[in-house]
Write a structure and sequence with these properties.
By secondary structure, the chain is mostly helical. The chain has a single domain, classed as Helix Hairpins (Orthogonal Bundle). Helices cover 76% and strands 0% of the residues. It starts with 11 loop residues before the first helix and ends with a helix.
Amino acid sequence: MNSQVTDTKISFEEAIQKLESVIDSLNNPAEPLQKLIELYEEGVGYLNICKQRLTEAEAKVSILDQKLQQQNQTEA
């Protein structure tokens, strides 16, 4: 199993779904320790993708908000 998440083009929603799946698997006490470590690493990768997508969305909202404020100032 490849524990490294390399598909950084996946959407936020896809990454969340995969992260939830990893979390469900981590809650299985029957899994061997090595498998749990690999799952944890995979989960961290998906978490980082989620953080990146949220940061990108926040930046876009900030830009749009600035444009709206500038537009309102020129109209006033």
